[in-house]
Each structure stands twice: as C-alpha cells, then as structure tokens.
Amino acid sequence: MLKVAVLVSGGGTNLQAIINAKIPNVEISLVVSNNPNAYALHRAMEANIEALCISPKQFETRALFHKALLTCLQDHGIELVVLAGYLVNISEEMVRAYKNRIINIHPSLIPSFCGKGYYGLKVHEAALARGVKVTGATVHFVDEGTDTGPIILQKAVEVKEGDTPQRLQRRVMEEAEWIILPKAIAMIANGGI
Ligand code: GRF
Prior knowledge:
By secondary structure, this protein is α/β, with parallel strands linked by helices. The protein is built from 6 helices and 7 strands, in the order βαβαβαβαβαββα. The chain has a single domain (2-189), classed as Formyl transferase, N-terminal domain (Rossmann fold).
C-alpha cells in the first residue's frame, strides 16, 4: 500500500474524487489543512481518514511551521504527498525530502495561466480574459518553482459561450481535475510512472 497524504485548504472536491476512486494499492493515511474551517477536513472525517489542521498561524515563524508539517508527514510514514487545492507554499526542504513524491493539481493547461498569482478563480478569469477556446487541468510533480515541475497528466476542457469564471471552474473540475488526479495517483502507486 502506498501511504498518501492529501494537503488541502478549502472545499476538498478533489480530495473527495480521490476517496471515491478507491485506488488499488493506495491508502489515504492523512489529510492536512492549513485552514481549520476547510470543508475538506469534514470530508476526511466522514471517510474515517485522520484529519489535522496545521496552520502557519500556530507557529512563531514560517520555518517552524514548515518543520512541523514535514515532521508530521514523516511520522505518519507518508510516501506520496498530494496537493489538492493547497494554498500554502511548500518549503524547499520538503521538496528535497519528498523529491518526485509531491504532486499538485492545477486548473489550467500548463504552461498557460500558471505560476505566481494564478490560483483558484483567478486562473479561470485569466483564461476567459484571454479568450482561449480550450482550457483544462494539469497534474505535475512539485519542484522548487511554482507550477514548474514535470507534467504527469493533462486533460483539455472546452470553454463555452457565456461562461463565467465560476461555470468554467466547475466544468474544469468535473471534466478534468476529478479524473486526472486519481488517475495520476493510481499510475504512481502501480508503477505507471
Ligand atoms: C481546484 O481547482 C484545484 O485545481 C486548485 O484549487 C481548487 C481546489 O478545489 N488547485 P477543491 O478544494 O478540491 O474543491
């Protein structure tokens, strides 16, 4: 069994997709949120998964926060870290400790609409402002940069006439994110990468 931790900050629909996928040879051992009010924590508890809040606000320095998060993952024997709507930057120390064992889902076709400042609805606002006809989602390994690591999977999604950022966000989730994130984890767990 590959021991997986899912890091979240908000609603946790991607976490739910991973739970629902019941991926062979994968155990979701832990869910960690920086936000104590994240609905994702509730989803984890409903699925009988250990759920913790580790917030930068609980620590005197950012370095202490990063250390506590890394220690927590290591103490739980975590082998793969999945960033599923996690809005906190990962430390370089964690990237080194989990080299090629941290993945992220981003709601665009990288290298479009990614990097610093592109998160949540901002990604879809930018896609609509540019007038692209196709967008999508990307699962990639996490390196020291922002959305710069090697790409694992991508899936395209059509932009439709009259889309709002919210409607486009929902379609990208339904047609891409919730499909390729569990698939990437399954590939890693079962030797597809
Ligand atoms: C998703 O759009 C994901 O791509 C982005 O943040 C959002 C998280 O949504 N990184 P949820 O918390 O999984 O519902």
